[in-house]
Amino acid sequence: MYKFLATLIYFVTNILLRKVKVIGKENIPKNEAFIVTCNHRSMVEIIILAMALYPREVHYMAKQELFKGKLLDKFFRSVNAFPVNRANPGPSTIKTPVKLIKENKIVGIFPSGQRADNAPMKKGAATISVMSKSKLLPAAYEGPIKFKDVIFGKEKCYIMFGEPIDSQSFTAQYKKNEAIEEITQTLESKTNTLIATLKHEA
């Protein structure tokens, strides 16, 4: 399902309407697994971020409330989403994304956990990067926050990628918990810089 929908949406947004502008493509790690993070204001950036990384697939961490009922559960899993209990995170919160990264896949996380720019980052993305020894690719989105505006509006959708954060360079200098804290602060700083830059560019 993911491949079909991604190809269809990519054709509409990137080729037919030419609505998606990607900045910093050179920062995307090639031929390796990584964690991509982004600011979160709506459902739109989830789709646009995936389009910016097309044809590679993104496996998104999503709140478990979205998976209620067999039909919704089946749909979200078919588009590469996996559930996380944000109120009481268990071992699967780490285990599932680490497994995906070991399978050379991209994991998508919105580390603020809420729909707002410049929101404080939670430590989940940094923890997973340390546990999986993978890079974090910070990204920022600027543009419409409603799908109807993406299709019918004049405003473009911007995604900007920053330089990857290598978790292993932090674990080489700090103990595990300190490394996670430092990575989280670095990710927050880089993301806020990307957001500010995009607001000026867009």
UniProtKB/TrEMBL annotation:
GO terms for biological process: phosphatidic acid biosynthetic process. One of its GO terms (molecular function) is 1-acylglycerol-3-phosphate O-acyltransferase activity. Keywords: Acyltransferase, Transferase. CDD domains: LPLAT_AGPAT-like. Residues 34-144 form the Phospholipid/glycerol acyltransferase domain. Coiled coil: none annotated. It comes from the Bacteria. InterPro entries: Plipid/glycerol_acylTrfase (IPR002123). This is 1-acyl-sn-glycerol-3-phosphate acyltransferase. Pfam families: Acyltransferase.
